[in-house]
Amino acid sequence: MMNKKHSPLKGLLILVGGLLYAGVALAASTQNAPGSACVATSGQALTARADGEAENQSASLVTAICPTERPIGTGVTTTNLSGTVFVVDQNAGANVCCRAVSKNPDGTKINGTWSCSSGSSSSYQTLNVASISDTYTFSSFYLECQVPAISGGNASRIQMYRAIQN
C-alpha cells in the first residue's frame, strides 16, 4: 500500500502555481458600481436615491462621469475599457446615452461610440458600451453618460454600471 502523504515541496509548487495563475487572472478587471457613484459635469446635479441610483430631476440634460479604477502595474496593466450601464429612460423625446472615455493628463481624450437607450420606459434598459483602447499608463478611464431632463414628472436615471477592463 502506498503512503498518501504529500511532500512539502509538492504543496509549495501547487501554491506558487495557483498564485501565478491568479496573477494572470488579475490582468482583467470587472467592477460594478452604483449609479450614485456618477458625478454630474454639466447642467444640474444628479440626485442620489436611497437605492444607490442617480437620477436627473432637472429640466436640463445632465452629462455625468462614472469613474473606474484602472489597474496599473506588473502583470495587471489594462489597456481596454468597455462596459454595461443599466438605465431607466423616462423621457419620450431624448435617450440616455453612455460611452467609454480615456483621458491623458496632457488633455488628449479617446472617446468611444455612444450607446443609447431606445424609447421611454419605466423598466431598465441595458446599454452595452463599446470598447476603447489606450496603452498610455498615465491615462484614466471612465464611462460618460448623458441623462435627459425630467419628463412628465418622471426622472431618467443611471441604476448601476459595470466597467470591464483588460
Give a structural overview.
The chain is mainly beta and 166 residues long. The protein has one domain (29-165): Sandwich (Jelly Rolls), CATH 2.60.120.260. Helices cover 11% and strands 42% of the residues. The protein is built from one helix and twelve strands, in the order αββββββββββββ. The chain has one helix spanning 8-25; strands at residues 29-34, 39-42, 47-48, 54-56, 62-67, 80-88, 97-103, 109-111, 115-116, 125-133, 140-147, 156-165. The strands form two sheets. Strands 1, 3, 4, 6, 10 and 12 form a six-stranded antiparallel sheet that branches. Strands 2, 5, 7, 8, 9 and 11 form a six-stranded antiparallel sheet that branches. A hairpin with a 5-residue loop joins β7 and β8. The longest helix is centred in the first third of the chain and has 18 residues, at 8-25. The chain is elongated. The relative contact order is 0.26. Mean pLDDT is 86; it is low at 6-26.
If helices are DSSP runs of H or I spanning 4 or more residues, what is the number of helices? 1
Beta-strand residue fraction: 35-45%
Span from first to last CA? 49 Å
Low-confidence stretches: 6-26
How many distinct domains?
1
CATH superfamily: Galactose-binding domain-like
What is the radius of gyration?
21 Å
Q: Do you know the CATH architecture? A: Sandwich
Protein name: Ig-like domain-containing protein
Signal peptide: 1-27
Organism: Polyangium jinanense
Keywords: Signal
Question: What's the arrangement of secondary structure elements?
Answer:
Blueprint: H1 8-25, E1 29-34, E2 39-42, E3 47-48, E4 54-56, E5 62-67, E6 80-88, E7 97-103, E8 109-111, E9 115-116, E10 125-133, E11 140-147, E12 156-165
Antiparallel strand pairs: 1-12, 2-5, 3-4, 4-12, 5-11, 6-10, 6-12, 7-8, 7-9, 7-11
